Amino acid sequence: MVDTVLFIICAIVAIVCGFNVVLQRHPISSALSLIGVMSSLAVLYLLLGAEFIAMAQMIVYGGAVMVLFTFVIMLLNAGTEKASSKSWFAQIAGLPLLLAFVGVLAFLIRAVLPPLAAVAFGSWVGGTAEHIGQLLFTTYLLPFEVISVLILIAILGAVALAQKEID
User: What mean pLDDT is predicted for residues 150-159?
Assistant: First the structure.
């Protein structure tokens, strides 16, 4: 019972912080909301019994990546986003179309996918450091290296944009 209540609380916090990431006008506020999402996900990983993944989530994403995001935001000197004039169609039809899309997507997922068994919190044993290391450096070595190169390119792009701003 406690696991279910904690799951619901963390899921609500993750969803609210996720919306807040998109709705905030200042990039630092969005980054802080993203830390809330990452923390909630780490607690959800703990509930599933994946302690190593939860700690990696907090250290890598909640710590290092968020410091990198904050550094890039400060380097680019990004201010508050300016309000744009929305089209009348987007203002009137945006929310109903979003709800219709989510409804159709939920219907398709329920119709196509087989019913799943209930989650037993703490029953998964695949989250150990050894298991993740074996998968990361055997099966998923190429995607791991490609993501490393993409992150390096993103950092170089941010530095190049900051250099143009300074000049």
Answer: 87
Domain residue ranges of the chain, discontinuous segments joined by +: 1-78
pLDDT tens-digit readout, 114-137: 887 777 766 667 767 788 888 888
Distances (CA, A) of 151 to 7, 29, 36, 46: 31, 22, 22, 27
C-alpha to C-alpha distance for 140 and 145, rounded to whole angstroms: 9
Distance of alpha carbon 50 from alpha carbon 53, whole angstroms: 5
Helix-helix angle 66-76:141-166, to 10 degrees? 20
> In whole angstroms, how large is the CA radius of gyration of the chain?
20
Residue 89 tokens read as: 């169609």
Residues 6+ apart with CB under 8 A from 41: 10, 14, 57
Query: What dotted CATH number matches 1-78?
Result: 1.20.120.1200
CA distance 156 to 167: 17
